[in-house]
Specification:
Elements: H1 13-18, E1 24-25, E2 55-56, E3 60-61, E4 76-77, E5 81-87, E6 92-100, H2 104-119, H3 121-128, E7 132-142, E8 148-157, E9 162-172, E10 175-184, H4 192-204
Parallel strand pairs: 1-4
Antiparallel strand pairs: 2-5, 3-5, 5-6, 6-10, 7-8, 8-9, 9-10
């Protein structure tokens, strides 16, 4: 996630996000029994940082601001969101979001919606911020449970600030998870292999 772009300024992306996927609304009456809460990543399961250990925050109800640049709640209503944030002593952070849908069909559509938002994120950033150049890369799918997708995002402002993010979306049955990692740097600084392992672990831990 680009750490140089103010979160408060990202509201301009909300309308554009709707174009990336259909509005997904969970049924008012639960079609399936309430599932046990998914398990989250631990700090030790994040891509290793060369000089600083990861610290994990508490699992929290709601939607994290840390995903607001590429993934938000616009177009997706009536879901209960839970997340956990991670950080190092330096300029590196991560966040994991989980959402449990009422049916596997709804979860599949929700995962696709998030994948589409991440895939179109670079174009939306450039439209919203003319002084920022953004590039996305597809790092492919992972053969875990119902599947996961990994992408990278690099942003660079006219002032020279350069930030790199890795984002993934995975699903196990009715549960969808989104994982994001970010720090200052470019694609050469992205721990793609380690992040794929983190994503695989995240999906395996959902149930």
């Amino acid at each position: 996630m680009s750490m140089r772009i103010r979160t408060s300024a990202l509201t301009a992306l909300a309308v554009a996000a709707l174009a990336a996927g259909t509005v997904l609304t969970a049924p008012a009456a639960g079609a399936a029994p309430k599932a046990a809460a998914p398990k989250f990543l631990s700090a030790s399961q994040l891509p290793p940082h060369p000089t600083s250990a990861w610290t994990a925050g508490p699992v929290t109800e709601g939607f994290p601001d840390g995903l607001g640049q590429c993934v938000d709640t616009e177009g997706v209503t009536s879901y209960d969101y839970r997340y956990r944030e991670f950080r190092t002593d330096l300029d590196t952070s991560a966040v994991q979001l989980t959402v449990v849908a009422d049916t596997a069909t709804l979860a599949k559509a929700l995962a696709k919606h998030y994948v589409d938002l991440i895939r179109t994120c670079a174009d939306r950033i450039e439209k919203a911020y003319p002084d920022v150049e953004a590039e996305g890369r597809d790092y492919g799918s992972l053969p875990v449970e119902e599947g996961a997708r990994v992408r990278g995002l690099h942003t660079e402002s006219s002032g020279g600030a350069s930030d790199i993010s890795l984002l993934s979306v995975g699903r196990d049955g009715r549960t969808v998870t989104v994982v994001s990692w970010g720090q200052m740097g470019d694609f050469g600084d992205a721990p793609v292999g380690a992040f794929k392992k983190t994503t695989t672990t995240a999906v395996n831990k959902l149930y």
